[in-house]
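Notes to self after the Tuesday call (sharing in case useful).
The group wants a holo model before anyone commits to mutagenesis around the pocket. I volunteered. Ligand is S-adenosyl-L-homocysteine. Logging inputs and output together so the record is complete.
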Amino acid sequence: MGSGQKSGIETRITKQIRAQGAVTVADFMRLALSARELGYYSSRDPLGAAGDFTTAPEISQMFGEMIGLWCVDTWQRLGAPQEINLVELGPGRGSLMADALRAAKLAPDFLAAIRLHLVEISLPLRERQAANLQAFHPQWHDSIETLPAGPMLVVANEFFDALPIHQFIMTESGWRERGVTLGDDDRFAWTLLPPGPQLALLPAALRAASPGAISPGAISLGAVAECSPASQRILGILAQHCLRAAGAALFIDYGPAASGFGDTFQALKAHRYHDPLQNVGDADLTAHVDLPYLARLAQEAGCGSFGPASQGDFLRALGIETRAAMLSRNQDHVTQEEIQTALHRLIDAAQMGTLFKVVAITSPGITELAGFA
Ligand code: SAH
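Result:
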């Protein structure tokens, strides 16, 4: 917006605000990212150096390989079912799954058992996935609703961070939901929505908090709380799968080790932070993922849960350092350096190693999983 013409999705959101009033942050995010044809993900491949952001599987093949080993090990712990749906949520270019299935060649029985399902809304990314994974005859889904019943292994890397969040701000009269409206010059602008039933979306412990600095449970004015009903709904469906048949799901995303407060809504364009209300549809919008809360919901539903572990600890426990040493053997100096650089990006605390967390949920009765101490 601003100086130039509005994009297709900006025009669409502007019309909606004129007709119905301010939208929630969740509606804004959902439209900007996934509106049919116009949304950010619906219309492009955003990954890689020429795109807006890079993910772990695009940094190194080692990431997907470790996940492949995790899948084989977890399949065995689930009783090695003869048929199992291997599902990836938001597979990007398909690199993670291609690396995982190459590493899984050491377990031919596992490869014979899997049926590959990919949940993906982006048509350009589906094409890349098809090119990378055609040997495994994947079946695509628009949403997790259409996944078949039966034993299931699920992998999701940087998937939940693209799902819509609601934001609430503590005011003198308590929590108020944040929204997006039209301000001067027709630009998108932040606003507070009238109080309404949507407050029920906040976890009860948060809802009860009040402004001020003295009483217990008090939260300072301006504090921000976030929640993602879309993520919670998907977690609930996966938990039901794990209760009805042998199953496990592995989630990797950036976010806190314990649930808390904070405004984590952000935009990324060409690898830089960006104003989320500018260039809508042409920048990625994301928010931190409260994996500890999702793990707790799975437990409350009766599932097992593991983690959060840091990505660094998880990958080290699966043997990524040994794998890096193997890949480096007999390579020239430049290649060896590249492998070391990629390894450190994935596991070092100052890079992705600590910010990214790993959580798994399982059918009841699973007591250990690879990668979790
Ligand atoms: N997992 C990949 C890609 C992460 S980017 C990687 O690690 O490289 C987020 C992915 O989720 C993209 O493939 C995007 O198209 C997909 N996605 C975003 N919102 C989605 C939704 N609502 N349903 C299904 N897929 C979605």
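Two things stood out.
The chain has a mean pLDDT of 94.
Residues 8-39+166-227 form one domain.
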